[in-house]
Structure formats: structure tokens, C-alpha cells
Hints:
The chain is built from four helices and four strands. The chain has 239 residues and is α+β, with helices and mostly antiparallel strands. The protein has a four-stranded antiparallel beta sheet with strand order 2-1-3-4. The chain crosses the membrane at residues 89-108. Residues 106-162, 207-234 form a coiled coil. Residues 4-49 form the GYF domain. InterPro entries: GYF_2.
Amino acid sequence: MKIYYLHDGNENKGPFTFEELKSKNITRTTPVWCAGMEDWKTAAEVDDLKSLLATVPPPIKPFMTFPSNEEVQKKIKNHNILGLSRSNFFLASGVLVLVIVLLITNNLQENRKNSFEQKNNQTEKNNEQYQLQQKEIQEQKKRIAEQESLELERAAKEEKQNITNRILEIKNSLSVNYSKLKNAKIELNNAADFQFLRTPEQRMEDIDLAQNNISYLKNEIATLEQEINLLYLKLEKIR
């Protein structure tokens, strides 16, 4: 009894007996090999296997038939969509889709335009508000500067008046001190003169007292003159 092997294009299958090959549905081109063969053969080339090959009927030829008028009308109705032919329906659908796309596009563009205009208006409002704020700040700075100027002017006038008053006081003090100095010098001359009813010790005390009074008055006069000179300089700067 012969043992057969089959090849499915990827690997060998078998061994199979002749009876087992009946259930494998081999075709004419199925590669087959058994002992005694030099190489693989197709099943159609092996005489023992020809009885196993399935007979394949030829393809059927189409028959030309003409549908009836009713069938044609029925097919036409079946091919219509919403009362329109398929071509007209798809054309209308395409136009409708195009119109919808255009409407959506116009709506988006209008929304973008409105949004852009709103942003521009808001920006203009912000700029106007910023300019008003800057103007108010500048006016406030101007008012502060004017107030500071008035305050400085007032302080300068007050200081000038105080200096003037002090100069007048010093002048009065100098006038008094010069008069006192003049009298002190007279007293020194009188103390230096010889007088009866006065001891030498009393004479020296009178001289020392007059000289001390003169020194004191000179120091006071020098201090007042130095102060009045500084006040004159300060008064010149204020003017």
C-alpha cells in the first residue's frame, strides 16, 4: 500500500493512505509525493490519484434578460431618495453642505471680527483711562509742586522776617553796648585820675572794674557784629 505526502505551500503533511486522501479534497495542482517518485508532482500527474480529483463545473454564463416596465419603475423608485434621483440628491446634499460650511465660516469670521472690535474698543478705553490717570497724576504733581513752592516762599519770607528782626535787635544791642562802652571808658579815665578821699587800693579796684567792664563790652560787641555779618550774608542768599 502506497503512502502519500502533501505539501500546502509551507510544510509537508502526511503520511496519508489512499483512503485518507479522499477526505483531504485535493485538487489537480496539489503537490504530492510518495515512495518511488524522484520529485514532487501535482495530483493530476499521478494516475492513481486522478479518481480523487474533484470535477469542477465551468462558470455559468450570464443570461441577457430585459426587465419589465414595472420593474424598471420600481427600481427607479427604489433608487430615488426623498423624491430625487440619487445623482440629484447627492448634488443637492453637496450644495446644502457647501451652504452650511459657508454660513459657519461667515459666522466664525463675524464672531472673530466682533471679538477683534471688542478688544480694540477695550484697548482704546484702557488707553483713554491710562491717559486720564497720567493727566491727573501730572496735575497732582503740579499742585504739589505749587504748594511746595508756596511753602518754600512762605518759609523764606518767614526766615527773612526773622533775620530782619534779629538784625534790628542786634543793632539795638550794639547801640546800647557802644553807649555802655563809651561810658565805661569815661569811668576808666575817672578812675585813673587822682582823687582825694580814696585810697590807692580803691583806685586800683575802680580801674580794674572799669577795664573788665570795657573788655566784656568789647567781647559782646564783637560777638554781635560777627552774628549780624552772618545774618546779612544769609539774607543776601534768601533774596
